[in-house]
Amino acid sequence: MIGVFDSGLGGLSVLKELQNKLPDYSYLYLGDSLNAPYGNLGAKTIYKLTKTALDFMFSKGAVLVLVACNSVSVETVRKLQEDCYNSKHSNKKILGIIIPTVENISQKCTKNSAIALIGTKQTIHSNKYKFEILKRRKDMVVYPHATPRLAGLIEKGDEGVVYANIRKELSYFKKMDYQYFLLACTHYSFYYDFFKKELPNNIKLFNSSFFVAEKTAEYLKKHSYLPIKKNKSTTIYTTGDLDKFKNRATALLENTNKREIKYLKTSIFTNNCF
Questions:
Q1: Looking at the annotation, which residues are catalytic?
Q2: Is there a contact between 22 and 257 (Cβ–Cβ < 8 Å)?
């Protein structure tokens, strides 16, 4: 099956796009709401949490795992891929989300254009997006901005507070000249329509979750040998409060393709001290 891991609810936006793009596959999701958000954690802690999560997902039958957390993709995906290759999971695959997003951006943006982007503190301070975009497109200008509270507010689900915070963060770009805008956190993808409404009409808004689903479909065509089940099942695990997670996830996944979803709680971090 295909696994999707995130530090909470945000990766469900990737799961939603994957199910729309690749409806025949079975999916396993793990949201670490107990330790969310990862954007304010250190690199060593993020690595330990993610490695434990991936071991759990592989043990449950995941063959390919998408790390749908930008903070993890920024800090540890490369090391996790190397560790996986040199372990008992050498036949499994781990993919991040930054490179697929950047590859799409570099293809879609016009010459000498500018892009604004927002993400967690960890993602923005790493300069990973800016570095990868400019490596492919030296003609572009990149305006990154950290939004340290937004992912946590989306986890809590108070719509009024989320909307107010989005408006506040967008005011940072008010006097800047740019043509494109990237939501560099999977949590933010659930508010794509609100961002689009708040941004100027001439701005093209990019949804990283959609890009990741497109690139995953391409990856699976190139790696058709991977033994991934296609029974259309979906199992979602959380490390936090199961009822709260299920209620919030059900609301966020509204209008996705209709399939039965099994919600479960896991205590994989109970005995780990980070």
A1: 69, 185
A2: no
